[in-house]
Amino acid sequence: MGRIILRQARLDNMKNEFINNISHELRTPLSILRTSNEALLNFGAAEDADTRNRYLGINAGIINEMDTSLERMMGVMLNSDVNRKATFRYVDTEKLVNSIVSRYTLDTSANIATDLENGPAEINTDPYMMTIILNNLVDNAIKYSSPDPRIVIKTTVRRKGWELIVKDNGRGIPAVHLPYIFDKFYRVPSGDLHEVKGYGIGLAYVDELVKKLYGRIDVNSRPGYGTSFHLKFKNHGSH
């Protein structure tokens, strides 16, 4: 009984932090949107085409980011993608990885290197789920690797499956937290609750989707030396 009470108390604390994180993360982009709209409406920014387009571009980027974050959050909370059956088809590793790299190198200062050990190769996977997995892992790597994120995405295709590694040069994760990082709502504590944005659900999401793709995910990390996520997938049909 004592263990059940302690577990429930821990879950309640994580949910409270989850709510605090949502409030903080939504408040910041909404404040930027408000300021941008005020400039367009009240301070003549709309009269100059270049200035107007710049503000509208900022607004569009913020809205897209909020939409993506909320979709990811609700996907985990409602298990919408976890309950969705994987749709396997052959995907080119180079196109898959480069689509992620181009997005983050456009929006951030991250240095993302790729290592396609077999060169461009085909893998049998669900491209929608794999894109979510890669987005979450790269997004985490950038958040925890500032101010100079250096990330490596490596793929290795083998006869009976394939492997994916996402490695960063970030702050690393203390060993005491590693057993829990795939738990829903769990976030590694830091000095500032809001130092790093996020809901504490991304890795739980990744773990569930990896299982849907007949894979497993492991993590190696040391404080001050970065983190490496190693994913192994069996070929669909050989599980």
UniProtKB/TrEMBL annotation:
Write down the CDD domains for this protein, in alphabetical order: HATPase, HisKA
The reply on keyword Phosphoprotein is yes
Q: Which reaction does it catalyse?
A: ATP + protein L-histidine = ADP + protein N-phospho-L-histidine
Entry's Gene Ontology molecular function annotations: phosphoprotein phosphatase activity; phosphorelay sensor kinase activity
Give a Gene Ontology cellular component term annotated to this protein: plasma membrane
Give the UniProt keywords, A-Z. Kinase, Phosphoprotein, Transferase, Two-component regulatory system
* EC id: 2.7.13.3
Q: Does the keyword Transmembrane helix apply?
A: no
Q: Which InterPro entries match?
A: BphY/WalK/GraS-like, HATPase_C_sf, HATPase_dom, His_kinase_dom, HisK_dim/P_dom, HisK_dim/P_sf, Sig_transdc_His_kin-like_C
Which EC class heads this enzyme's classification?
Answer: transferase
Looking at the record, the residues that make up the Histidine kinase domain are: 21-237
Q: Name one Pfam family in it.
A: HATPase_c
GO biological process, alphabetically ordered:
cellular response to phosphate starvation
What name appears for this protein in its UniProt entry? histidine kinase
Q: Which organism is it from?
A: Mucilaginibacter rubeus
